[in-house]
UniProtKB/TrEMBL annotation:
Keywords: Hydrolase, Magnesium, Metal-binding. GO terms for molecular function: metal ion binding; sn-glycerol 3-phosphatase activity. This is glycerol-1-phosphatase. Its cofactor is Mg(2+). The lineage of its organism: Eukaryota, Viridiplantae, Streptophyta, Embryophyta, Tracheophyta.
Amino acid sequence: MKHNIISKPKQILDLIVCATQTPRSSVRFYSSKIQLRYQFRSASVSAKMATQTVCDSEKKLITHVIFDMDGLLIDTEKFYTEVQEIILSRFNKTFDWSLKAKMMGKKAIEAARVFVEETGISDSLTAEDFLVEREAMLQKMFPTCDLMPGTICLSVGLVKGASRLVKHLHAAGVPICVATGSHKRHYELKTQNHGGIFSLMHHIVMGDDPEVKQGKPSPDVFLAAARRFEGGSVDPSKILVFEDAPSGVLAAKNAGMSVVMVPDPRLDSSYHETADKVLSSLLDFNPADWGLPPFTDSAT
């Protein structure tokens, strides 16, 4: 008997939905208590069970786009890294990317608990005290953040990849929004010099929103974002999410959405496996691959 092969976890979800007529939102999501690396690897192994055609066909159904913020649109992840390295140096410990991968995209208190527990300093520094100390340093850094690196030379000058994509989708009439784990006070600091880009978003959903009960990899923030587009809740299968963090990729998949991952090059490649597409920069994204209006400028 010939067995079909499926290469993406989203395809497994599609088969479950088709076979049982179960709404995507009710399909149980990955437990946040399982290590992210295990989630990605086990998801990849489980994916070898059916055909490879679902993902390609669904790319043509995308009508709405959701962007993560930190590390995807704006270059703020470096600030978190710098501050956490400073704090850990007091305990003669180092901050590495395996730990950062577990913290990225989560709500602040959830990431703080991971930080103090994984580094073994919880007896000396509580998660709450860590946040207070980190906050004082980040408050000064956030207003200096820039849009994510990656520029192309167009007739109008130098354009950032994030700016180019957001402006293109908005001009083409594609509904776009932001779903971030950042709280409102941080969002305002981070975006104060980038109002032009963020004003193009239909709406912003933040980590301290009442509807976001759990942080990523729970799908809460993406499902809340899907409900707030004009005209009411959008079918998750028609939404494309842009993410840089492993927990964010899982959150989008748990919401039943397609995901393009734009990871930091220092992130272990094992975290790439669950994303539908992995890019080195937003400049590499081709809207036409997903049935979205193609760029009208040249990226060469």
